[in-house]
Structures are given as structure tokens and as C-alpha cells.
């Protein structure tokens, strides 16, 4: 693997624990990049205060205009141009993005899964669900993110999970998440430089 780039991709529902997994990998020296940052950058051109549904629409538009793997390709190109050798990639929501990222070579997709009651509880704790209308919007967003009612070029987290090389279940403590993630990283020899 000398000279090669090692990339760990993360996929999963919102509030499944991907952000915590990123923090763990950052602690091991992985540089962070997110497909969502590309979408946010595009959204800022329109209005910096876009909501989750509008972000999903913008991501879908980018995929429609540039091909379903466009976000994955853009991240892959940024990684190829950078000096850093180890990366954690978040925001993977479409199978075509996975296929683009697999072109990196040493790319492993980790699905972070969590029970729906944990996801909803985490989102409520973050203050994102404040009333019945907000909870309905949350459930619609979770369904859309999964791929229900979405076009092939839209969000498809469900099919991305099926493409994962490894699955980490995050229904417990942060220490348990770290232990499970360490087990995966040890299997692929990717924890330490």
C-alpha cells in the first residue's frame, strides 16, 4: 500500500453515528471530506439557509446534471490531487457514488447502522424535532434519504448499505462504536499509519 491512498467511506442514515465515526478516524490521522460539502457549497450559491429537503433537491439536481456518480467523482478527484494518503469520506448516498469511489483502489465502504428509535431520539436531542409537524417532516426526510420515492439518481442510502464492505451497528455507547470501528479497521489493516 506504499504510495497508495487509503479511503474509508461511510454511509448510513442521518444520526446513525457517521459523525462520531469521522471523529474517531480523524483521531487516527484520516483527513475528512464529505460529498455533502459539495452540495452545501452549491446550496450556498442559492441560499445559505437551505433546509434538509432543499439540500436533497440540490444533490439530486447535481446528479441529474452531472451523472449519478458526479459527487463521488468530484471527491475522488480532490483526493487524487491531495498529498494526504488516508481519508475518511462521508455523505455517500447513491450507489453510483460508491462505484466512483471504488476507483480509488484502496477504498472500503463502512455502513453505520442504528435502530430507528435511536436515530429519532438523537435527532430530538439535537433539537431538530420540536413539534408534530417537524416530526412528520423528519420521517419524510428519512424515507426519502433511504430511497423511497426517489429516482435512481436521487438519494439511495438503502442500496448503499447493501454495497458496504463492512457494517458497524451503533446502538450503544461511543466507546462501543469505537470498539466496533476498530475491529473493522484492524481487519483491513487501516487503523494505524
Would you give an account of this structure?
With 193 residues, the chain is α/β, with parallel strands linked by helices. It has one domain (6-183): Rossmann fold, CATH 3.40.50. Helices cover 53% and strands 14% of the residues. It is built from nine helices and five strands. The protein has helices spanning 18-27, 35-46, 52-66, 70-81, 95-102, 116-125, 132-146, 157-162, 174-187; strands spanning 6-11, 31-34, 86-90, 106-113, 166-169. The protein has a five-stranded parallel beta sheet, sandwiched between helices. The longest helix is centred in the N-terminal third of the chain and has 15 residues, at 52-66. The chain is globular and about 45 Å long. The mean pLDDT is 88.
Amino acid at each position: 500500500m506504499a504510495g497508495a491512498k487509503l479511503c474509508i467511506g461511510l454511509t448510513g442514515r442521518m444520526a446513525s453515528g457517521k459523525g462520531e465515526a469521522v471523529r474517531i478516524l480523524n483521531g487516527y490521522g484520516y483527513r475528512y471530506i464529505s460529498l455533502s460539502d459539495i452540495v452545501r457549497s452549491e446550496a450556498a450559491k442559492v441560499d445559505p439557509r437551505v433546509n434538509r429537503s432543499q439540500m436533497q433537491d440540490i444533490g439530486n439536481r447535481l446528479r441529474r446534471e452531472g451523472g449519478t456518480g458526479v459527487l463521488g467523482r468530484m471527491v475522488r478527484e480532490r483526493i487524487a490531487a491531495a498529498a494526504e494518503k488516508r481519508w475518511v469520506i462521508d455523505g455517500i448516498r447513491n450507489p453510483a457514488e460508491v462505484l466512483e469511489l471504488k476507483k480509488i483502489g484502496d477504498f472500503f465502504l463502512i455502513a453505520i447502522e442504528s435502530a430507528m428509535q435511536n436515530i429519532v431520539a438523537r435527532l430530538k436531542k439535537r433539537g431538530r424535532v420540536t413539534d408534530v409537524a417537524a416530526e412528520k417532516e423528519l420521517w419524510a426526510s428519512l424515507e426519502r434519504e433511504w430511497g423511497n420515492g426517489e429516482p435512481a439518481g436521487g438519494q439511495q442510502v438503502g442500496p448503499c448499505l447493501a454495497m458496504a464492505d463492512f457494517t458497524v451497528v451503533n446502538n450503544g455507547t461511543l466507546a462501543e462504536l469505537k470498539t466496533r470501528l476498530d475491529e473493522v479497521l484492524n481487519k483491513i489493516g487501516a487503523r494505524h499509519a
